[in-house]
Structure formats: C-alpha cells, structure tokens
Q: What sequence folds into this?
C-alpha cells in the first residue's frame, strides 16, 4: 500500500489572480485557488476530504472502502481512485438504476476496480439507517464507511487546512456545495473577519444550512457562524445545466483559458460574477474562488 505521506500531490495548490473587466469595473479582486491541480485523479476537495479518512482506514486495517453517490458523483470517482492508489477494495453505492453505457465518471470508477451497486431512490434516502447498512455488510462484508460526498469530521479537518495555504489577505472565500463539507471545513480555518460563501449545486439547497451546522458541531464542537450559502445558481438542480451556463463556460474559457466543470465549479463562478454585477460585494473586496475539480 502507498503511504499517505508518500503520495504525490501538489499542495499548496496554485493561487492565480484573475483579470477581468467585470471585476475591474466593480473594484473587485478575485484569486483562483487551483485545487483541481492537486492530483489528476483525486483533485481538490476530494483529496482534502479523503486523506484523513484514508489514514483512518489504514489505522483500522480496513480492506474495503464503501461510499455513496449519484451517477455523476466526483466523490465516487475519487474514492475509486483512492482505492486504486492506496490498495483498498472499493464499493460505490449509486443512487437510482444502472444506465448503460456508463457515463465517464462511473466508467472510470469501474475501470480502476470499484464495484458499482445500485440502490432505488427510496432505499437511498435511508442509506445510513442501521437496516440498510446491515444489508450492505451482509452483501459486501466489512468496510470502512465514507459518507456521501466524503463529508464527515475527518473531511472537515482536511478542508480546514485550505485557508492556511493562501498568502494574500482576502475577505470572502467561495466554493461550490454538494453536501456542504468543504464549506464547513473551510469556514473552520478562517481568520476573524473573513467569510466563506458556498454556492449550492442542488435545487432547494437551503437544507444544507442545517447539515453544515451539524457537521461543524461534530468536528469543531461549535458552529463558526462565518459562512453562508447562495442557493439561486443551481441552474435547474444537480447535474443539470442551461444554455446560459454553457455560454458562460465557453466565454470564461475563451477569456481565461480555464474550462470549468459544469456540475459544480461553473455554477459557483457564474454566481460570483452575478453577485459582482449586482454590487453585492463592496468595492475593494478580495475574493478567493476554489476550483475543486
């Protein structure tokens, strides 16, 4: 097995200032935190969330990792990669029915050895219940459980380290939100006066507020109260996109030579520029945008 400290990752990830006329007109400074460059197969917040879970699984002498996700889950893909690199058997419990051919995320996961199993949506809603977990243990044997999106106390410990890598003074740090673990962890690593702003990729993302608060209480013993969520930039919901979002992605790539992941990161970036245009950030504000993958 590869040792966690021997695994080659690019940390700290690069920090690059973005030059854009929209930002300059409003007097806003925006830096891009290129967490997508941490590792090609376990990028960004996925590495930060998984690294302490991998270490814990090793300490417990676990042979298998089991986790949950949707068909387009970057977390499923990253967990499969972690198993491949660190010598674990991996099991991905996928929401809904199997659709063939597999999409690129699930195809990659299967190609590196992940066993894909599917749960109907009703059962998936109760995936963490003792009954469902007992059924999974009966089917797959013992496993180290990583929650959907990788969001648990160990994940927050990894994400909390991100702000410490940033060597410019900033006011607000932004990230995309699926389960809320990245936002919860980043907020735990901020200095006084700094704020973390999450952009929900899910329709109806208001529920994340309770989930994030609960995660912080378990990880830090308290809520940090220095974060918020923007819920109006989901573009129709998880793994959904609009022509407006596609146009933004194409324009952004032309101007800045950076292609944005449409499931998460593009929605965040679209939201940032929308809020800048609306004057939601005071002139002189310095923003950080975390490109998670």
A:
């Amino acid at each position: 097995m590869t040792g966690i400290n021997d695994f080659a990752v690019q940390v700290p990830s690069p920090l690059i200032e973005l030059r854009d006329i929209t930002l300059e007109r409003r007097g806003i400074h925006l830096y891009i935190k290129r967490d997508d460059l941490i590792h090609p197969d376990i990028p960004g917040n996925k590495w930060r969330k998984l690294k302490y879970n991998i270490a814990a699984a090793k300490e417990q002498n676990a042979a298998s990792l089991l986790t949950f996700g949707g068909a387009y889950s970057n977390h499923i893909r990253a967990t499969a990669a972690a198993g491949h690199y660190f010598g674990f058997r991996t099991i991905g419990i996928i929401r809904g029915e199997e659709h063939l051919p597999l999409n690129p995320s699930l195809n990659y996961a299967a190609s590196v050895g992940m066993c894909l199993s599917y749960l109907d949506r009703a059962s998936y809603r109760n995936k963490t219940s003792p009954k469902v977990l007992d059924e999974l243990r009966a089917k797959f044997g013992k496993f180290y459980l990583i929650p959907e999106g990788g969001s648990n106390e160990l994940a927050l410990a990894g994400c909390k380290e991100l702000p410490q890598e940033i060597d410019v003074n900033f006011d607000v740090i932004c990230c995309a939100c699926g389960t809320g673990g990245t936002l919860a962890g980043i907020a735990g690593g901020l200095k006084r006066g700094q704020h973390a702003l999450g952009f929900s990729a899910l329709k109806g993302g208001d529920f994340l507020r309770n989930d994030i608060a609960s995660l912080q209480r378990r990880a830090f013993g308290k809520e940090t109260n220095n974060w918020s969520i923007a819920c109006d930039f989901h573009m129709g919901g998880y793994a959904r996109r609009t022509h407006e979002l596609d146009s933004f992605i194409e324009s952004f790539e032309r101007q800045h030579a950076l292609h944005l992941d449409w499931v998460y990161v593009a929605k965040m970036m679209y939201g940032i520029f929308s809020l800048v245009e609306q004057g939601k950030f005071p002139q002189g504000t310095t923003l950080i945008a975390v490109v998670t993958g």
Remarks:
- Strands lie at 15-18, 29-33, 64-69, 89-95, 115-119, 144-146, 172-177, 195-200, 227-230, 286-290.
- The first strand starts at residue 15 and ends at 18.
